[in-house]
Amino acid sequence: MEKQLGIATGNCHKFFTPKDHNKIVSLLKPIIEKHNLKAIELTYAFTEELSIEITEKTCKTLKGKTVSIHAPFVGEYADDKETHELMKKLASIYLRTNAILLLIHPTLFSDVSFIKKLEEQYNINIATELLGPRDMKLNDFLNLLENSNINFVLDVGHAEEFPYDDMEKLVNKYKDRICELHLHKVIDGHTHCTFSKGGISKALELTKDFNVPMIIEEEFEEDDIEGIKTEIEFLKEVLQQ
Predict the structure, then answer these.
(1) What is the model's pTM?
(2) So what's the pLDDT on residue 186?
């Protein structure tokens, strides 16, 4: 089974100011083609990034790829004017790029039933994400899963921050609801670093055979294209083992 390895535009957030997803996708295009990457995540960390519209050229580059969208970090996704204005913009990008999911952090909404209403209203699939203990207790995340049918992205870096037995139970119980993986190591409870420097994690070993998009979500210094290439080559070799 060929793995669905992909990359997030968030890897290159230091490359352009302001952050321009069109420029990032254009920069990554030769790498995507050379390494036959199957997926890409458009990582919108801040609402200001939405002011730069996705171009037709970018949509053409994304055609045939599995696209996901990481929603901005706002105060809260709630039934208010600000949320609906934001959702209209995100839904437009979702439609134009043929995305398969919109990711919203679980700490950014208090009512999962409202998230389901957003799915219906804007005709999109919304998933949430496992965060580290600094942001959300594992029991709170498990309660969210127990009391809803929302799918989620398993962040293997943050999964590694929890006891292995707890992580293994979560993965085994909810594997059918894991719709994507985020690949990175975590240092100091927050900073994303590469596997090629930090070593393979138990969480990656546990999930590397999953048939879902596997998105490299790390942090590279400005213009470190060679670092991105090295990480892709390293992970492709690991995922084939």
Answers:
(1) 0.95
(2) 76
